Amino acid sequence: MKAEADGAALDARDHDYLRRVVPHFLAWKDGAPFLYWFGPQPRICLFDYESVRQVLWNKSGHFTKTDTHPTILAMLGKGLVLVEGTDWVRHRRVANPAFAMDKLKMMTTTMVSCAERLIRECEELAATNKSGEVEVEFSRHFQELTAEVISRTAFGSSYKEGKEVFRTQKQLLALAMATLLNLQLPGFKYLPTKNNRLKWMLEKKMRTTLMAIIQPRLASKGSGFGDDLLGLMLEACFMTEQGEKRDELALTMDEIIDECKTFFFAGHETTSHLLTWAVFLLSLHPEWQERLREEVLRECGKANPTADMLSKLKEMTMVLLETLRLYGPVLTMLRKPISDIRLGSLSIPKGTGIMIPIPILHRDK
Ligand code: HEM
C-alpha cells in the first residue's frame, strides 16, 4: 500500500494529499472510527465531529494530553501545549498579557519590517536578471522570515541569541523525526546511546542559550523586563492574580525556559508552512492573486500595513483560512481519557489514545 502511495503522482490542483500520505488511514477508516497500535499504546482514530467536539470541549479535565516522545519534549518544552490542569492555568495567566490586542498591534511593526526586508531581497534578486524575473524557493524564505519575526517579537534585542535556539531546535526536530517510530522501551531514554547523547547535548545547549537571554533580564528587574514576549511574560510572573506585585516568580526558571521553547516552535513552523502553502495556492489561482492585490491596495494604499488595516483584509483572511483547511500545519491532536468513557456508540477504556486527524476532518465531502 505504501509503495503504491509513494509512486502516486499528485496533480498540483489535487489537494487531496491524504491518499498519498496516509493511505492506510483511508483504507482502515471505511466510514467509522478504527483502532490501531502505536507501539504498546492502543489509539482510536475519531472521524465524527460530535465525538471530537466532546473531547476538545470537555472542561472537566477528563481528557488529558498523551505522553510525549522524549525528543519532542526536549524540543518543545513542557509549556502550554503540553501542561495540564492547574499548571496550565498558571502558565496561561503568565502568557496571556503578551497576547493582548495592544501588544500584538505593537508587534505588527516588527513583522512588517521583517516582511519588507524579504520583499527587498526578492526584488534585488530579480533585478540581477535581465527579464526582471527570478525563481525563488519560498519555503526557505518563509522559514527565515518567521524565524526572524518570532526571534524579534519574543526576544527583542536578544534576537540573535534567539536564532541560535532555532538552530538547536531544528536539530532536535530532525532527531525526533528520525526516532519517532522507534519502540520506546521503559528506561531506554536514560541509556547513553548515540542519539540520546546527541539529544542531551542539544537540550543542554538550548537551555544555556535561553538562560543567557533570561538571566540579564531578571537582573535588570528595576528597569523593566522589556516589551517583547519574554519581557511581558517575566513581568506577568511577578504579578498576582489581583494585580499586586509578588517577590517570587510565578513560574520556575525551568518552566519559563520551556515556555520560550514552546512559543518558538509553535510560532515558527506553523506560520512558515501556512505562508508557503498560501503562496502555492495563489500561484495556481492568479485570479485570486489579483483580488488580493486589489484588496491590499484598497485598504492599505501604498503604505506599509498597520494592524488596523490588516483586520480589514477580508479576502486575505478567507484565503488564509482556506489554506489552513487544505494544508493546515498541525495534522493531529491527541488526548487520552483518565477513566473509561462512552463517546457516542463507543466505549473507550481509560488511557486509550484518542487521535483527531485534522486534515481528514477538513475534507469530509
Ligand atoms: C498557522 C498557525 C498556527 C496553527 C495552525 C496552530 C495550531 C495549533 C493547534 C491545533 C493547537 C492545539 C494543540 C493541542 O491542544 O493539541 C495549538 C496550540 C497552541 N499554539 Fe498554535 N498554531 C499556530 C500558530 C501559533 C503561534 C504563532 C503561536 C505562538 C507564537 C502558537 C502557540 C500555541 C500555544 C502556546 C498553544 C497551546 C495553547 C494552550 O493550550 O493554551 N501557535 N496551536
TrEMBL record:
Record bears the keyword Transmembrane helix: yes
Record GO biological process: lipid metabolic process
Keyword Transmembrane helix: yes
Signal peptide extent: none
UniProt entry keywords in alphabetical sequence: Heme, Iron, Membrane, Metal-binding, Monooxygenase, Oxidoreductase, Transmembrane, Transmembrane helix
Subcellular location: Membrane
GO cellular component: membrane
Family membership noted in the UniProt record: Belongs to the cytochrome P450 family.
Phylogenetic placement of the source organism: Eukaryota, Viridiplantae, Streptophyta, Embryophyta, Tracheophyta
Matching InterPro entries: Cyt_P450, Cyt_P450_E_grp-I, Cyt_P450_sf, Cytochrome_P450_Monooxygen
Record Pfam families: p450
Record-given protein name: Cytochrome P450
Gene Ontology MF terms in the entry: heme binding; iron ion binding; monooxygenase activity; oxidoreductase activity, acting on paired donors, with incorporation or reduction of molecular oxygen
